[in-house]
Amino acid sequence: xxxxxxxxxxxxxxxxRFPGGRWFFSxxxxxxxxxxxxxxxxxEELAEGYARVTMRDRKRVRNHLxxxxxxxxxxxxxxxxxxxxxxxxxxxxxGIPVHLGIDYLKKARGTVTAECRVPGGIAPIPEDTxxxxxxVEVEVRLTDPHGEVVSEARARWVIGRA
Length: 162
Known about the structure:
Layout: H1 4-15, H2 21-32, E1 42-47, E2 50-55, H3 70-86, E3 93-104, E4 112-117, E5 133-143, E6 149-161
Antiparallel strand pairs: 1-2, 2-4, 3-6, 4-5, 5-6
Helix pairs in contact: 1-2
């Protein structure tokens, strides 16, 4: 199985059902994206066009105000948007983020949950125009343990044929 998106879908479909499977899948994602691994996020739910990922509040991701650091939140938003996009890609396609923006609404304390939906999915790029690219913009909402929104991020991805 050479298509990374197929491998990702297959690994999730198999692993998420077992005790510790989501943890192991999250470790695999961190190995594939080493910088992302630094926040030790846990993939909680994945489906086509949807991702929910959590990050525990721990000393390593905190700032001097004893809240979750802004860059840790942005890192979580990027990972979540990437997983939602990857689970939406048609076979033979790839995506790369070209813009990330975030608004911080309140101090983040406790486990932060990020959710992202890809509205309407991603249409395949015709094979007769392999150089065509399109942009997809998604929103990621980050909430605290009480369900209050702590930040809202926007990620723009360029989609093209692999």
